[in-house]
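Lab meeting minutes (informal)
Scribe: AK
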Amino acid sequence: MSLPYLTPLGARDLAAHGIPPQWRYGMADRVRFSEIDALDHVNHTACLRWFESLRLPYCRDYGISRYDRSSPELVLKAVEARYHAPMFASEDYVVTARTVSFRTSSFRMEYAVFAPDLRTEGSAIVVLLQRDGGDRFALTEEMKQAFVERDGAHSEG
């Protein structure tokens, strides 16, 4: 794979490596030995960590959070993974992310891992909270616009 590892990738780079066009944000990496389980393939928890590792720069690049005291707190309400085929040590992969829908103070993300074929899919519901731990933090118009323009997301009301 000629993609740089651990660097956010846009639609053009992803498409050049056979990633379907609905995926416009991703990151390449290689399976590490520490991610292998007793069955000699990637442990299911590794995929959830890959989703998390991509969600952080995604939220920064989409203007959701700067990860400082002035930014909303991002909380996972739900997370899911579906495994299609095993992955093995030293295998190159691309993990992708997109927002498919949003509400007043939450959004639903989908993920996919390609190596080069689809290996894993996932989803998460992310809720924004005020930093003081109290009320929810409403998505700004800029956040919603980024979801719609960059990912084709839709409002759920």
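Next up, CB showed the second protein from the same session:
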Amino acid sequence: MEQIEKQELRNEVEKVKDFHGRNFSQLTGNFYIMRAAIRYYSVKQGRSMTSARISEDFPLTAPVAGSCLTVLEALEIVEKRNESSSKNRYLPGDVNMEKMEELEKILKENYEIESF
């Protein structure tokens, strides 16, 4: 069962890489910062997060953080609260850290990111 889920995530990563190429590059370049930010807000703080909030507390600009969150949303790792014209707000309870760890393994296997 676990192998099937991992293969599904691999397939999702390939689709996201094709459809969100630039955003995917932003994520791979800033993966460890985004992982730290998501863990900080969802696990440590239990607060919602936006790209602007991430840029205030971490060394990323808001557009880069937004691009990364878009990819993570496409991979169903984070989920935005609702559709609106305001900034997307991601809730801490809707973060899948296990899937984020699997994504890290896949990206390392594909040489998209280096070990840290």
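CB comment: The radius of gyration is 13 Å.
No objections, moving on.
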